[in-house]
Request: fold
Amino acid sequence: MRFSVLSVVGMMLAFTSSWATATQLEEVVVTAQKRSQSAQDVPIAITAMSADSMREAGVFDVSDLTDVNPSISFDTGQSSQNSSLKIRGIGTVGNGRTFEGAVGVFIDGVYRSRSAMALQDMNDIAGLELLRGPQGTLFGKNTVAGALSLTSSKPDSEAFGISAEMLSGNFDKRYAAAAVNMPLGDRSAVRVSVVNNRQDGFLHSRQQGNRTYNQTDRISGKVQWLFDVTDTLESWLILDYSKSDAGCCWGSVQVVSGPLTQDLKYYAGLRGLEFYTADYAEDRRLTNNNADSEELREDIGLTWKLDWALESMDIRAVTGVRRFTDEQVRGDADFGPAHILTLSEPAEIDFWSQEVNVSTQWGAVDIVAGIYYSEETFESNRIFESDTDSNNYASFLVTRAAAQMAGYSGSTAPVCRPPGMTLGCTALFATIGGPVGFTSFDLFPAERGVKIIEDHYYQDSTSAAIFIHTQTDFENGFTLVAGLRYSEDRKQGGYDQVYWYNSELAQAIIASGLIGDPPSGDASTPRNALDLNTIYNSPSFYDEYESSVVTSTLSGQYRFTDDIMGYLTFSKGYKAGAVNLFQEAANLNNTTYEPEYARSWELGLKTRYWDSRAQTNIALFDTQYENLQINFFNGFNFFTQNTGEALSRGIELENTVQFTESLRAELSITWLKAEFSDLGNAPEAVRHLDGRQTPRAPDLSAVAAATYSRPLSANAGLYGRVAASYSGEHWASPDTPDEPTQGPYTLWDAALGFQYYGGTEWDVSLFCKNCLNQTYRTIYFAAPVQEGSYNAYLNEPRQIGLSIKTRL
Reply:
């Protein structure tokens, strides 16, 4: 399939015989350096898209960017709060509560500290810019891999306008969006937009009447007010709100079935359920989820932008205030058919920020300087509750382990699973334990819905920075870009143990020393089945973290001609450390982690030729990551530790050609070497990563697209688009030593539409995404309490739909 991607352009060429009437490529203006410039003049590898080009490419939200540029990937695991946006093989993997992204997300100039805050529909977004490589000088912390900037459509005080779209597709897809622009006199305008997006999930649970998981159920609204206070002072106020009520993100499939498979089938059978194991589950997209799992997400914020144009300088102030809540409700924490554990975890993030920057010209030097300050409070609770099989299954695992310790096969241990648990084991434990005073033999609660543990996590953060960025143009065609930023981060937080269920039997086993000494506590410390699985009761803790970091950029540009520019850029970035908010942090002496650092060199060439009808950009990059923050899952907790290094090195090639007025073709290719290194002193759980490719970082990936339009009359025409994205063999996740690699695949998208350009514009199109219904694994993880079993999240299957858009 590799050559099928590269052949898209060639196929379109074969059907085109004349280029005489071709138009020039449009100039793309970006603000990547906090000043308006042509993308071809910026010494950064950048992907920029307008609202029209996003819709043309089928980009409804950030997750769709994976199919637009081969250097980008986006994945969501068990919680959308920590969705992972990766650039050049570097991103954030895991669900750490304070684990911030490697790709900074900015919407209307305001930083979003979690990727999930950008996991919303593109509600009235005018354009996006995706900057690749460290962006620590102008964008600050958590941009070691790059930065994503989204900008809203600005209200217009000169014309009234309405636009709307309705879309329907398979999996009961229902999408509606509308925007209204209303001038309020000569100096003011209001713009209001709404989006409603619903779709069934792509994984089914026959355990719950074929209910689907990982579905979409989102609504968002935005109100904007633009006011020209004077001829030189502009105020732009943006209020946005979004809400999601869906079964995200518990739907996964079992891809490796371990030695407990038959026992789990037994438990499923007790409830009249099936256990969907490897191959069968993946082929049919069947999940074993048997809880009524939901994720409730709400995001509200206010952005205020002031632009003051003085005679000798421009001053901009950007203020952001946000509240983000994310609540996991009744999650099936064991990911299996047995009714063992349910998880609820509400979280709330309050954030505000202020940036003020000044831009001015001093001779040949263009200067942007500014200050930045932000505060964030994070708070969450994690509650595990018992289900109908909790105690039975825990007792089974303990007796199985005891039999193995005594030299017997594990197959001799299931005496303590139902109905033996009720008929045999209780009587056995009573006979043995009664004389020494045991009155309860529940490793977990025997009833459903009883609290097992409750944790409380919290962190307060402040961040302050001062920066300067200069661009000096010399008469010989050389341009020097230099920038410096000083940042300070302070964080205070910790973990409070609210409740830990106590089992007298578990207390006795721990006190006996049969499974070793616990890292903390004494004979009176509450214990349960988690302690017997070495997830020990850990004391509450409070800790503080602070750091100061200097980041920088230095770039030399040379313009060979008006259409050819070369550059060499050095940049430094960092990802902030934090208090390590996980339940075992005190036991493992791992209550904070330090910043991660990136140093990058990029050599690039940006060219336009063929009368500005063709464009080719090339970037060679080499980025070293030190003091790497690795987030991994130990079967019960996600936590972060600084260890080792990573390398991201490669070549990016981007081509766009406007062959005729009707035909445009694009081809982007990324050759990448991204891998972990120097993990010899890392925890045993991650040493297998030494020398291994980072997740979702194939050696070769590519995206090709061709768009063709044909007028039918002065006011109407047809258009079509075909696109293919290729990904080579790669690893999906970092957690598992013996994880199989994901093989290469190619995804095909297509669209065919009709446009009318009369007084009211209409656009009707048929489209398909992943037209050939290719399936691949996005995240691979060890299934909790299922020794030797592994689950995976899957990509979206084929989607077919009809879109109707109008504008007046």
